[in-house]
Amino acid sequence: MAIPVPTRQLFINGDWTEPLLKKRIPIINPSTEEIIGDIPAATAEDVDVAVEASRSALTRNKGKDWATASGAVRAKYLRAIAAKIKERKPELAKLETVDCGKPLKESEADMDDVISCFEYYADLAEGLDAKQKAPISLPLKAFKSYVIKEPIGVVGLIVPWNYPLLMAIWKVAPALAAGCAAILKPSELASATCLELGEVCREVDLPAGVLNILPGLGSEAGAPLASHPHVDKIAFTGSTRTAIKIMTAAAQRVKPVTLELGGKGPIIVFEDCDIDKAVEWTIFGCFYTNGQICSATSRLIVHESIAEEFLDRLVKWSENIKISDPLEEGCKLGPIVSKGQYENVMKFISNAKSEGATILYGGNRPKHLEKGYYVEPTIITDVNTSMQIWREEVFGPVLCVKTFTTEDEAIELANDTHYGLGGAVVSKDLERCDRVSKALQLGAVWVNCSQPCFCQAPFGGVKWSGFGRELGEWGLENYLIVKQVTEYVSDEQWGWYEPPKQ
Q1: Global pTM value
Q2: What is the average pLDDT across 102-125?
Q3: Which of 125, 149, 351, 472 could covalently link to 177 via disulfide, CB atoms 3.0 to 4.6 Å apart?
Q4: What's the CA gap between 129 and 148, in Å, rounded?
Protein backbone atom coordinates (compact mmCIF):
# COMPACT_ATOMS: atom_id res chain seq x y z
CA MET A 1 0.00 0.00 0.00
CA ALA A 2 1.37 3.42 -1.00
CA ILE A 3 2.15 5.74 1.89
CA PRO A 4 0.78 9.25 1.23
CA VAL A 5 3.48 11.93 1.19
CA PRO A 6 2.09 15.42 1.92
CA THR A 7 3.14 18.25 -0.38
CA ARG A 8 4.50 21.04 1.79
CA GLN A 9 6.18 24.41 1.40
CA LEU A 10 8.78 25.99 3.68
CA PHE A 11 7.52 26.61 7.20
CA ILE A 12 8.28 30.27 7.99
CA ASN A 13 6.68 32.58 10.55
CA GLY A 14 4.03 30.05 11.47
CA ASP A 15 2.77 29.37 7.95
CA TRP A 16 3.57 27.51 4.73
CA THR A 17 5.61 29.70 2.40
CA GLU A 18 6.68 28.94 -1.15
CA PRO A 19 10.46 29.18 -1.70
CA LEU A 20 11.28 32.53 -3.27
CA LEU A 21 13.09 30.80 -6.15
CA LYS A 22 10.34 28.13 -6.32
CA LYS A 23 12.89 25.28 -6.19
CA ARG A 24 11.89 21.74 -5.18
CA ILE A 25 13.78 18.47 -4.62
CA PRO A 26 12.34 15.01 -5.42
CA ILE A 27 11.79 12.46 -2.62
CA ILE A 28 13.12 9.05 -3.67
CA ASN A 29 11.99 5.97 -1.75
CA PRO A 30 15.30 4.12 -1.20
CA SER A 31 13.58 0.72 -1.13
CA THR A 32 12.02 1.13 -4.60
CA GLU A 33 14.15 3.89 -6.20
CA GLU A 34 10.89 5.59 -7.18
CA ILE A 35 10.01 9.27 -6.80
CA ILE A 36 7.18 9.49 -4.27
CA GLY A 37 6.90 13.26 -3.83
CA ASP A 38 9.01 16.36 -3.42
CA ILE A 39 10.11 18.91 -0.84
CA PRO A 40 10.71 22.66 -1.05
CA ALA A 41 14.32 23.77 -1.45
CA ALA A 42 15.28 26.89 0.48
CA THR A 43 18.01 29.27 -0.65
CA ALA A 44 19.78 32.24 0.94
CA GLU A 45 16.79 34.47 0.16
CA ASP A 46 14.49 32.24 2.23
CA VAL A 47 17.04 32.08 5.04
CA ASP A 48 16.91 35.89 5.28
CA VAL A 49 13.10 35.79 5.62
CA ALA A 50 13.25 33.06 8.27
CA VAL A 51 15.90 34.90 10.29
CA GLU A 52 13.77 38.04 10.28
CA ALA A 53 10.77 36.00 11.46
CA SER A 54 12.85 34.44 14.24
CA ARG A 55 14.17 37.77 15.48
CA SER A 56 10.65 39.20 15.48
CA ALA A 57 9.43 36.23 17.51
CA LEU A 58 12.00 37.01 20.20
CA THR A 59 11.17 40.72 20.45
CA ARG A 60 7.38 40.60 19.96
CA ASN A 61 5.55 42.11 22.93
CA LYS A 62 8.99 42.96 24.41
CA GLY A 63 9.84 39.27 24.47
CA LYS A 64 6.91 38.31 26.68
CA ASP A 65 5.39 36.01 24.04
CA TRP A 66 8.41 33.70 24.08
CA ALA A 67 11.96 34.68 25.03
CA THR A 68 11.13 36.17 28.45
CA ALA A 69 7.96 34.14 29.04
CA SER A 70 8.12 31.74 31.95
CA GLY A 71 9.46 28.27 31.35
CA ALA A 72 6.03 26.98 32.28
CA VAL A 73 4.51 28.80 29.28
CA ARG A 74 7.01 27.24 26.89
CA ALA A 75 6.54 23.82 28.53
CA LYS A 76 2.83 23.97 27.68
CA TYR A 77 3.66 24.22 23.98
CA LEU A 78 6.27 21.44 24.12
CA ARG A 79 3.77 19.09 25.75
CA ALA A 80 1.13 20.00 23.19
CA ILE A 81 3.56 19.18 20.37
CA ALA A 82 4.37 15.84 22.04
CA ALA A 83 0.67 15.00 22.30
CA LYS A 84 0.06 15.78 18.62
CA ILE A 85 3.00 13.65 17.53
CA LYS A 86 1.66 10.83 19.67
CA GLU A 87 -1.69 11.09 17.85
CA ARG A 88 0.07 10.91 14.48
CA LYS A 89 2.72 8.33 15.41
CA PRO A 90 1.65 5.53 12.99
CA GLU A 91 1.46 7.90 10.03
CA LEU A 92 4.75 9.68 10.88
CA ALA A 93 6.60 6.40 11.38
CA LYS A 94 5.55 5.14 7.94
CA LEU A 95 6.47 8.45 6.35
CA GLU A 96 9.91 8.28 7.99
CA THR A 97 10.42 4.75 6.68
CA VAL A 98 9.57 5.48 3.03
CA ASP A 99 11.65 8.66 3.16
CA CYS A 100 14.91 7.32 4.63
CA GLY A 101 14.61 3.52 4.46
CA LYS A 102 14.86 2.52 8.09
CA PRO A 103 12.74 -0.47 9.22
CA LEU A 104 9.26 0.53 10.37
CA LYS A 105 9.83 -0.85 13.87
CA GLU A 106 12.82 1.49 14.23
CA SER A 107 10.83 4.47 12.94
CA GLU A 108 8.10 3.72 15.49
CA ALA A 109 10.74 3.64 18.25
CA ASP A 110 12.12 6.95 16.95
CA MET A 111 8.66 8.55 17.26
CA ASP A 112 8.44 7.34 20.87
CA ASP A 113 11.81 8.96 21.53
CA VAL A 114 10.66 12.19 19.86
CA ILE A 115 7.65 12.31 22.18
CA SER A 116 9.80 11.57 25.24
CA CYS A 117 12.31 14.24 24.28
CA PHE A 118 9.67 16.97 24.04
CA GLU A 119 8.15 15.90 27.36
CA TYR A 120 11.57 15.78 29.04
CA TYR A 121 12.51 19.28 27.92
CA ALA A 122 9.07 20.56 28.93
CA ASP A 123 9.97 19.47 32.46
CA LEU A 124 13.35 21.19 32.23
CA ALA A 125 11.74 24.37 30.89
CA GLU A 126 9.54 24.51 33.98
CA GLY A 127 12.59 23.85 36.14
CA LEU A 128 14.32 26.91 34.68
CA ASP A 129 11.91 29.21 36.50
CA ALA A 130 13.09 27.96 39.89
CA LYS A 131 16.75 28.38 38.90
CA GLN A 132 16.47 32.04 37.94
CA LYS A 133 18.24 34.45 40.27
CA ALA A 134 20.18 31.60 41.86
CA PRO A 135 22.33 33.30 44.56
CA ILE A 136 26.11 33.25 44.47
CA SER A 137 28.06 33.13 47.73
CA LEU A 138 30.50 36.06 47.86
CA PRO A 139 33.37 36.82 50.26
CA LEU A 140 32.35 40.49 50.67
CA LYS A 141 29.13 41.23 52.56
CA ALA A 142 28.82 44.58 50.81
CA PHE A 143 27.76 42.77 47.64
CA LYS A 144 24.94 40.46 46.66
CA SER A 145 25.09 38.44 43.45
CA TYR A 146 22.86 36.11 41.48
CA VAL A 147 22.66 34.45 38.07
CA ILE A 148 20.05 34.77 35.34
CA LYS A 149 19.81 32.27 32.48
CA GLU A 150 18.63 33.73 29.19
CA PRO A 151 18.06 32.28 25.71
CA ILE A 152 21.05 32.71 23.41
CA GLY A 153 18.78 34.08 20.67
CA VAL A 154 18.20 32.86 17.11
CA VAL A 155 19.72 29.41 16.55
CA GLY A 156 20.38 27.53 13.33
CA LEU A 157 19.88 23.78 13.64
CA ILE A 158 21.35 21.64 10.85
CA VAL A 159 20.53 17.94 11.05
CA PRO A 160 21.26 14.70 9.13
CA TRP A 161 19.16 12.06 7.40
CA ASN A 162 19.76 8.92 9.49
CA TYR A 163 17.30 9.87 12.26
CA PRO A 164 15.50 12.71 10.45
CA LEU A 165 12.91 13.79 13.01
CA LEU A 166 14.63 12.48 16.13
CA MET A 167 17.95 14.25 15.47
CA ALA A 168 15.98 17.43 14.75
CA ILE A 169 14.15 17.17 18.07
CA TRP A 170 17.39 16.63 19.99
CA LYS A 171 18.04 20.26 19.04
CA VAL A 172 14.57 21.78 18.62
CA ALA A 173 13.20 20.69 22.01
CA PRO A 174 15.99 22.15 24.20
CA ALA A 175 16.28 25.27 22.02
CA LEU A 176 12.58 26.02 22.44
CA ALA A 177 12.67 25.09 26.12
CA ALA A 178 15.42 27.68 26.61
CA GLY A 179 13.35 30.39 24.90
CA CYS A 180 15.30 30.57 21.64
CA ALA A 181 13.80 30.96 18.19
CA ALA A 182 15.02 28.22 15.86
CA ILE A 183 15.59 27.70 12.16
CA LEU A 184 15.73 24.00 11.37
CA LYS A 185 17.56 22.87 8.22
CA PRO A 186 16.82 19.15 7.66
CA SER A 187 18.81 17.06 5.20
CA GLU A 188 17.68 17.26 1.60
CA LEU A 189 17.74 13.43 1.62
CA ALA A 190 15.07 13.11 4.33
CA SER A 191 12.94 16.10 5.28
CA ALA A 192 9.36 14.80 5.15
CA THR A 193 8.75 14.24 8.86
CA CYS A 194 10.53 17.48 9.80
CA LEU A 195 8.08 19.34 7.55
CA GLU A 196 5.18 17.60 9.30
CA LEU A 197 6.54 19.07 12.54
CA GLY A 198 5.63 22.43 11.01
CA GLU A 199 2.02 21.32 10.65
CA VAL A 200 2.03 20.14 14.26
CA CYS A 201 3.31 23.57 15.36
CA ARG A 202 0.48 25.22 13.41
CA GLU A 203 -2.07 22.97 15.10
CA VAL A 204 -0.84 23.84 18.62
CA ASP A 205 -0.59 27.58 17.78
CA LEU A 206 3.11 27.85 18.52
CA PRO A 207 3.90 31.60 18.33
CA ALA A 208 4.81 32.59 14.77
CA GLY A 209 8.53 32.57 14.01
CA VAL A 210 9.56 30.52 17.04
CA LEU A 211 10.30 27.54 14.77
CA ASN A 212 11.02 27.81 11.06
CA ILE A 213 11.75 24.77 8.88
CA LEU A 214 13.86 25.15 5.74
CA PRO A 215 14.81 22.01 3.82
CA GLY A 216 17.32 22.46 1.03
CA LEU A 217 20.82 21.74 -0.16
CA GLY A 218 23.68 22.37 2.22
CA SER A 219 25.36 24.84 -0.11
CA GLU A 220 22.14 26.77 -0.78
CA ALA A 221 20.42 26.73 2.63
CA GLY A 222 22.83 25.37 5.25
CA ALA A 223 25.80 27.59 4.35
CA PRO A 224 23.79 30.87 4.34
CA LEU A 225 22.28 29.87 7.69
CA ALA A 226 25.69 29.15 9.24
CA SER A 227 27.17 32.44 8.07
CA HIS A 228 24.14 34.67 8.66
CA PRO A 229 25.05 37.72 10.76
CA HIS A 230 21.79 37.61 12.74
CA VAL A 231 21.94 33.93 13.71
CA ASP A 232 23.43 33.73 17.20
CA LYS A 233 24.45 30.06 17.30
CA ILE A 234 24.72 26.99 15.07
CA ALA A 235 24.16 23.41 16.25
CA PHE A 236 25.18 20.83 13.66
CA THR A 237 25.10 17.05 13.34
CA GLY A 238 26.85 15.59 10.32
CA SER A 239 30.24 15.05 8.74
CA THR A 240 33.52 16.42 10.04
CA ARG A 241 34.22 17.90 6.60
CA THR A 242 31.04 20.00 6.68
CA ALA A 243 31.68 20.93 10.33
CA ILE A 244 34.98 22.53 9.37
CA LYS A 245 33.15 24.77 6.89
CA ILE A 246 30.55 25.67 9.52
CA MET A 247 33.21 26.50 12.10
CA THR A 248 35.02 28.66 9.57
CA ALA A 249 31.84 30.59 8.76
CA ALA A 250 30.90 30.96 12.43
CA ALA A 251 34.39 32.14 13.36
CA GLN A 252 34.01 35.23 11.19
CA ARG A 253 31.44 36.50 13.70
CA VAL A 254 32.73 34.70 16.81
CA LYS A 255 29.52 32.67 16.76
CA PRO A 256 29.30 29.63 19.10
CA VAL A 257 28.76 26.19 17.61
CA THR A 258 27.90 22.75 18.92
CA LEU A 259 29.12 19.89 16.73
CA GLU A 260 28.11 16.21 16.85
CA LEU A 261 30.10 14.56 14.09
CA GLY A 262 31.23 11.22 12.74
CA GLY A 263 32.72 8.22 14.46
CA LYS A 264 34.56 4.94 14.03
CA GLY A 265 33.60 3.38 17.31
CA PRO A 266 35.27 0.32 18.85
CA ILE A 267 33.57 -2.60 20.56
CA ILE A 268 36.09 -4.50 22.67
CA VAL A 269 35.04 -8.09 23.45
CA PHE A 270 36.98 -9.93 26.16
CA GLU A 271 37.38 -13.69 26.45
CA ASP A 272 35.08 -14.03 29.50
CA CYS A 273 31.98 -12.72 27.70
CA ASP A 274 28.73 -14.55 27.07
CA ILE A 275 29.36 -15.07 23.35
CA ASP A 276 25.80 -14.98 22.01
CA LYS A 277 24.95 -11.88 24.06
CA ALA A 278 28.12 -10.19 22.86
CA VAL A 279 27.45 -11.17 19.24
CA GLU A 280 23.95 -9.71 19.31
CA TRP A 281 25.20 -6.41 20.75
CA THR A 282 27.98 -6.38 18.13
CA ILE A 283 25.54 -6.64 15.21
CA PHE A 284 23.08 -4.24 16.85
CA GLY A 285 25.88 -1.72 17.38
CA CYS A 286 26.86 -1.77 13.70
CA PHE A 287 23.84 -2.89 11.65
CA TYR A 288 20.99 -1.04 13.42
CA THR A 289 19.52 1.83 11.36
CA ASN A 290 20.93 0.05 8.29
CA GLY A 291 24.42 0.75 9.64
CA GLN A 292 23.91 4.51 9.31
CA ILE A 293 24.77 5.57 12.86
CA CYS A 294 27.42 8.16 13.67
CA SER A 295 28.23 6.31 16.90
CA ALA A 296 28.26 2.84 15.26
CA THR A 297 30.67 0.43 16.93
CA SER A 298 31.99 -0.63 13.54
CA ARG A 299 35.44 -1.79 14.69
CA LEU A 300 35.23 -5.15 16.47
CA ILE A 301 38.27 -5.79 18.67
CA VAL A 302 37.90 -9.37 19.93
CA HIS A 303 40.20 -11.44 22.15
CA GLU A 304 42.20 -13.89 20.04
CA SER A 305 41.31 -16.88 22.23
CA ILE A 306 37.60 -16.64 21.30
CA ALA A 307 37.91 -15.02 17.86
CA GLU A 308 37.23 -18.12 15.77
CA GLU A 309 34.13 -19.14 17.73
CA PHE A 310 32.94 -15.53 17.97
CA LEU A 311 33.19 -14.92 14.23
CA ASP A 312 31.43 -18.19 13.48
CA ARG A 313 28.50 -17.13 15.66
CA LEU A 314 28.63 -13.60 14.22
CA VAL A 315 28.14 -14.96 10.70
CA LYS A 316 25.27 -17.21 11.81
CA TRP A 317 23.48 -14.32 13.54
CA SER A 318 24.05 -12.09 10.49
CA GLU A 319 22.59 -14.75 8.18
CA ASN A 320 19.44 -14.59 10.30
CA ILE A 321 18.85 -10.84 9.78
CA LYS A 322 15.75 -10.20 7.67
CA ILE A 323 16.60 -7.83 4.80
CA SER A 324 13.46 -6.58 3.07
CA ASP A 325 11.21 -3.68 2.23
CA PRO A 326 11.40 -1.74 5.51
CA LEU A 327 7.60 -1.66 5.78
CA GLU A 328 7.49 -5.47 5.95
CA GLU A 329 6.84 -7.13 9.30
CA GLY A 330 10.08 -8.35 10.86
CA CYS A 331 12.44 -6.31 8.69
CA LYS A 332 15.71 -5.70 10.52
CA LEU A 333 17.78 -4.22 7.69
CA GLY A 334 16.46 -1.84 5.05
CA PRO A 335 18.13 0.12 2.25
CA ILE A 336 20.84 2.75 2.40
CA VAL A 337 19.29 6.23 2.19
CA SER A 338 20.31 7.17 -1.37
CA LYS A 339 22.04 5.99 -4.52
CA GLY A 340 25.08 8.16 -3.79
CA GLN A 341 25.47 6.79 -0.27
CA TYR A 342 24.93 3.22 -1.52
CA GLU A 343 27.72 3.64 -4.06
CA ASN A 344 29.96 5.07 -1.35
CA VAL A 345 29.42 2.05 0.91
CA MET A 346 30.09 -0.38 -1.93
CA LYS A 347 33.29 1.50 -2.78
CA PHE A 348 34.51 1.08 0.82
CA ILE A 349 33.94 -2.68 0.56
CA SER A 350 35.70 -2.85 -2.82
CA ASN A 351 38.66 -0.86 -1.50
CA ALA A 352 38.96 -3.16 1.51
CA LYS A 353 39.24 -6.18 -0.81
CA SER A 354 41.81 -4.45 -3.00
CA GLU A 355 43.88 -3.58 0.08
CA GLY A 356 44.03 -7.26 1.07
CA ALA A 357 41.19 -7.62 3.58
CA THR A 358 38.83 -10.62 3.52
CA ILE A 359 35.06 -10.29 3.17
CA LEU A 360 34.05 -12.94 5.69
CA TYR A 361 30.35 -12.36 5.11
CA GLY A 362 28.15 -10.16 2.90
CA GLY A 363 29.56 -7.36 0.85
CA ASN A 364 26.98 -7.50 -1.95
CA ARG A 365 23.44 -6.57 -2.85
CA PRO A 366 21.02 -9.20 -1.45
CA LYS A 367 20.13 -11.60 -4.29
CA HIS A 368 16.38 -11.46 -3.62
CA LEU A 369 16.19 -7.66 -3.93
CA GLU A 370 16.69 -6.32 -7.44
CA LYS A 371 15.55 -2.77 -6.66
CA GLY A 372 16.49 -0.47 -3.82
CA TYR A 373 19.80 0.61 -2.29
CA TYR A 374 20.34 -2.55 -0.25
CA VAL A 375 23.68 -3.80 1.12
CA GLU A 376 24.08 -7.10 2.94
CA PRO A 377 25.41 -6.89 6.48
CA THR A 378 29.13 -7.15 5.88
CA ILE A 379 31.94 -8.54 8.07
CA ILE A 380 35.54 -7.83 7.05
CA THR A 381 38.57 -9.62 8.53
CA ASP A 382 42.34 -9.66 7.90
CA VAL A 383 42.35 -5.92 8.45
CA ASN A 384 45.38 -3.86 9.41
CA THR A 385 45.22 -0.46 11.08
CA SER A 386 46.39 1.47 8.02
CA MET A 387 43.48 0.30 5.85
CA GLN A 388 40.77 2.75 4.86
CA ILE A 389 38.07 0.41 6.19
CA TRP A 390 39.61 0.56 9.68
CA ARG A 391 40.23 4.30 9.74
CA GLU A 392 37.30 5.96 7.94
CA GLU A 393 33.59 6.13 8.69
CA VAL A 394 31.58 4.03 6.23
CA PHE A 395 28.03 4.89 7.35
CA GLY A 396 26.66 1.54 6.23
CA PRO A 397 26.26 -2.01 7.62
CA VAL A 398 29.98 -2.82 7.50
CA LEU A 399 31.93 -4.28 10.45
CA CYS A 400 35.71 -4.70 10.42
CA VAL A 401 37.52 -7.03 12.80
CA LYS A 402 40.87 -7.24 14.60
CA THR A 403 42.02 -9.48 17.43
CA PHE A 404 44.01 -8.63 20.55
CA THR A 405 45.96 -10.42 23.27
CA THR A 406 46.20 -7.99 26.20
CA GLU A 407 43.96 -5.33 27.69
CA ASP A 408 46.52 -2.63 26.93
CA GLU A 409 46.67 -3.73 23.29
CA ALA A 410 42.88 -3.55 23.02
CA ILE A 411 42.82 -0.02 24.43
CA GLU A 412 45.60 1.07 22.08
CA LEU A 413 43.69 -0.29 19.06
CA ALA A 414 40.47 1.36 20.21
CA ASN A 415 42.09 4.78 20.70
CA ASP A 416 44.07 4.69 17.44
CA THR A 417 41.59 6.85 15.53
CA HIS A 418 40.85 10.50 14.81
CA TYR A 419 37.32 9.95 16.10
CA GLY A 420 35.95 9.71 19.63
CA LEU A 421 32.16 9.51 19.74
CA GLY A 422 31.01 6.19 21.23
CA GLY A 423 32.38 2.75 21.99
CA ALA A 424 31.67 -0.41 23.95
CA VAL A 425 33.41 -2.89 26.21
CA VAL A 426 32.05 -6.40 26.81
CA SER A 427 33.23 -8.48 29.78
CA LYS A 428 31.89 -10.14 32.92
CA ASP A 429 34.73 -8.49 34.87
CA LEU A 430 33.18 -5.17 35.84
CA GLU A 431 36.42 -3.85 37.34
CA ARG A 432 38.05 -4.38 33.96
CA CYS A 433 35.11 -2.68 32.26
CA ASP A 434 35.60 0.30 34.56
CA ARG A 435 39.34 0.50 33.80
CA VAL A 436 38.76 0.28 30.06
CA SER A 437 35.91 2.82 30.15
CA LYS A 438 38.21 5.36 31.79
CA ALA A 439 41.01 4.66 29.29
CA LEU A 440 38.90 5.02 26.14
CA GLN A 441 39.04 8.44 24.45
CA LEU A 442 35.31 8.72 23.80
CA GLY A 443 32.31 10.84 24.64
CA ALA A 444 30.23 7.76 25.52
CA VAL A 445 31.16 4.25 26.64
CA TRP A 446 28.64 1.41 26.78
CA VAL A 447 29.33 -1.55 29.06
CA ASN A 448 28.00 -4.96 27.96
CA CYS A 449 25.81 -3.29 25.32
CA SER A 450 26.02 -0.90 22.36
CA GLN A 451 23.99 2.12 21.27
CA PRO A 452 21.53 2.59 24.17
CA CYS A 453 20.39 6.21 24.10
CA PHE A 454 18.29 8.13 26.62
CA CYS A 455 17.27 11.78 26.42
CA GLN A 456 18.34 12.21 30.05
CA ALA A 457 22.00 11.32 29.36
CA PRO A 458 24.54 13.55 27.56
CA PHE A 459 25.65 12.65 24.05
CA GLY A 460 28.63 14.00 22.12
CA GLY A 461 32.22 13.32 21.20
CA VAL A 462 35.87 14.25 21.43
CA LYS A 463 38.58 14.67 18.80
CA TRP A 464 37.14 14.72 15.24
CA SER A 465 33.74 13.66 16.61
CA GLY A 466 33.01 17.21 17.73
CA PHE A 467 32.45 19.11 20.95
CA GLY A 468 29.57 20.15 23.16
CA ARG A 469 26.90 17.81 24.49
CA GLU A 470 23.33 17.23 23.45
CA LEU A 471 20.54 15.72 25.56
CA GLY A 472 20.11 15.85 29.32
CA GLU A 473 20.55 19.12 31.17
CA TRP A 474 23.69 19.65 29.07
CA GLY A 475 21.52 19.90 25.96
CA LEU A 476 19.50 22.74 27.48
CA GLU A 477 22.63 24.62 28.57
CA ASN A 478 23.69 24.72 24.88
CA TYR A 479 20.98 27.31 24.25
CA LEU A 480 21.33 29.47 27.37
CA ILE A 481 23.47 32.46 28.28
CA VAL A 482 24.52 32.87 31.90
CA LYS A 483 24.28 36.48 33.09
CA GLN A 484 25.77 37.61 36.38
CA VAL A 485 23.96 40.40 38.30
CA THR A 486 25.85 41.88 41.26
CA GLU A 487 24.46 44.57 43.56
CA TYR A 488 26.25 46.81 46.08
CA VAL A 489 24.07 46.59 49.19
CA SER A 490 26.09 48.52 51.79
CA ASP A 491 24.91 51.91 53.06
CA GLU A 492 28.56 53.00 53.25
CA GLN A 493 30.39 55.06 50.65
CA TRP A 494 32.60 52.76 48.54
CA GLY A 495 35.62 54.80 49.60
CA TRP A 496 38.08 53.97 46.84
CA TYR A 497 38.67 57.63 45.89
CA GLU A 498 39.23 60.63 48.08
CA PRO A 499 35.98 62.64 48.18
CA PRO A 500 36.12 66.27 46.97
CA LYS A 501 36.43 68.99 49.60
CA GLN A 502 33.17 70.62 50.62
Answers
A1: 0.97
A2: 98
A3: 125
A4: 10
